[in-house]
Amino acid sequence: MSCDKIFNRNEALTLIKQYIRNEKMLAHCLASEAVMRALAKRLGRDEEKWAMAGLLHDIDVEITNADPEVHGLEAEKLLKNLGIAPEIIDAIKMHNEEAAKQQRSTEFQHALACSETITGLIFATTLVYPDKKLASVKSKSVVKRMKEKLFAASVRRDHIMECEKLGLSIDEFAELAVNAMRTVANEIGF
Fold it and tell me: 0.85 exceeded by the pTM?
């Protein structure tokens, strides 16, 4: 199999559904895909590659029980065996610096880290709205919640702030991410 294969979206969806059973985790992957696609478009990067990284980034989360010591490393092994493009695998591995034992250094790595992380903050913000619908969420609310350290306390704000390494302010990034997630609201149940 070629070392630079990029699955089409249907193949990738089938693949993640083989490895991820939790519906919330699947929604997170779909949301991450949407944010990465929008970010790639904004930055003039390869939308398919970036979206694929977002979609597949947590493929090993259930295999590893989200253990930060190995999460990402198992994904790397699995995706290499499938012939996924090395730069996609690298971004996926590096979204968890703890297991990779390196710091993120590339635009693609920072993009995946901030994109997949902001989805958690947006989901949490959505759940405090009376109608619990993404359509109601304002990016200003996400930014406000970002400053509330006890709100969605497990969401790593420092990862979200890596958007600045891409040339986006938190306000711009939150707006891009909320709008991107709205495009898949029906798919993710929000």
Answer: yes
